[in-house]
Design goal:
This protein is an all-alpha fold. Helices cover about 60% and strands about 0% of the residues. The protein is globular and about 45 Å long. The mean pLDDT is about 90.
């Protein structure tokens, strides 16, 4: 049986570090941090760690809202979404995730835009 990306990169501890580093980049981005002004970042990081873990083949522990409900009314544009995806890609590169695995991860994230983007 082949190894999941979750196992390959060290499981929940590593995914948690990816998520923390990712949100540091997002929160440093003036155009994006406004989306998180009323957000409990500890809760968000926990949810996101579970979500990414599950997306990479780890345990199914994500119990948050579905993507559409979680982002409803936030007025997120495609360029906002692309900027966030870019921060994720940069975070993965910084942590020496292999290029083919970054492509796989971005491939999981990209289709979520149809549930997250609400601003034309």
């Amino acid at each position: 049986m082949s190894q999941t990306l979750y196992e390959k990169y060290g499981g929940k501890k590593t995914v948690g570090q990816i998520v923390v580093n990712f949100y540091q980049k997002v929160m440093a981005d003036e155009s994006l941090k406004k989306f998180f002004t009323n957000t409990d970042m500890k809760v968000l990081i926990s949810h996101q760690t579970n979500f990414i873990s599950q997306a990479l083949g780890g345990p199914k522990e994500y119990t948050g809202l579905d993507m559409k409900a979680a982002h409803q009314g936030m007025n997120i544009s495609q360029s906002d979404f692309n900027a966030v995806a870019g921060h994720l890609k940069n975070t993965l590169e910084d942590l020496n995730v292999e290029t083919q695995d970054i492509d796989t991860i971005i491939g999981v994230v990209a289709p979520l835009s149809e549930h997250i983007v609400s601003k034309q």
